[in-house]
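INTERNAL AUDIT FORM
Audit reference: QA-55
Scope: verify that the stored structure record matches its stored sequence.
Auditor: D.O.
Record contents follow.
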Amino acid sequence: MPVSAGQHPPTVAVLDGGEHPPGLDDLVGDACLRFAAGPAELADALPGSDVLLTWDFTSDAVREVWSDAIAGTGPGTLRWVHTASAGVDRVAFPALLASPVTLTNSRGVFDEPMAEFVLGAVLAFAKDTPRSLALQRDRTWRHRETETVAGKVATVVGSGPIGHAIARLLGAVGMRVRLVGRRAAEGVHAFDELPGLLPDTDVLVLAAPLTEATRGMLHSGTIGLLPRRARVVNVGRGPLVVQDELADALASGRLAGAALDVFEVEPLPADSPLWAMENVLISPHMSGDVVGWKDMLVELFVDNLARFTGGRELRNVVDKERGYVSAGANS
C-alpha cells in the first residue's frame, strides 16, 4: 500500500544537525518544514509531523526522542522516515521497526563514488602510493617494485547496488571478484559460504549493511582464515569489524594492510593505534561523499516527497526485517 500525506500538505520534520539541506526550502512546494538541530528541538518538531528527514544521519536523536504516540495512523501522525544515508542502523531501532512508519534510505546516491573509492584504495596499496608520498616529502629517490591487481581475488561482502558497483570496477581492472550476500543468487554467494572464500582472498571488501548477522563479522577467527597477503577495505559500517582484533592482526603482520573509512567509534580516537600504522589508510567516513552529493540527496528526498504527497509508491523502501532495501524494490 502506498503511504501518503492524506488531504493536507505534509509537515516535514528535518533533523539537520544545524546544517540545512541545500535548496530544500525551495524544492518542497507547499510542505511545512520544521528544522531541528538536535534531540530537544526534534522532540518539539515531531508531534504533528507526517514525515521525518534524518539529514544528520550520524545522530541518535530519533531513537532518543521516539514515542509510540507520534507513530499512528491518523492525520498529524508520523507516516514516513527517510534517512540521507544508505545504511539505516541509526534509525532502525526496535520501536521504529515495530511501528507502522515506512522507512526509506538514500540508496543509489553513493554507489559509484564508493566503488571508485574502493578501487582507489586497492590501487594505492598495489602501487605503494603511501610510501611514494612519504619518500617524496623526504626528497628521497628509492626505486621499488610494485604489485599488479590483475588476476588477484577480491571478495566483496554486500550484494546490493554498492557491492555490485564495486565488483564491476574491480572486475574492470582484471580482478577476479566474488560477491557475497545474505543468501545465494545468480552470481552471488550466500553469507554462510564466506569462510570457504577467505583462504584465497587477496582483497576483502566490506560493503554490507549493519545487521545482527553482519555485526562483528571480521574478527580474529575470520581474520585467521585470510592469507597474510590479504588486505581489508571497509566502506560499510565500523561495527562490521572487531576493531581491536583487526588492529592486532595489522600490527603483527598477520594481514598486509587495511583501508578503513568507517570505525566502531567516530571520529576515530586520537589514541587509536591504527593512526600510526604504515599499512593502514584512514579516511573519515567519506567514501561516498563527492562534489554535489548533498544536492543528490535532496533531489532524491524531494522526489520521494512528491510521491508521498501524491499517494504513489516510495523509492527505496527498507525491509524492516532484513534492515535494507530488498532486491527488486522500487528504487
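Auditor finding: record pair retrieved intact. The chain has a mean pLDDT of 94.
Action required: none
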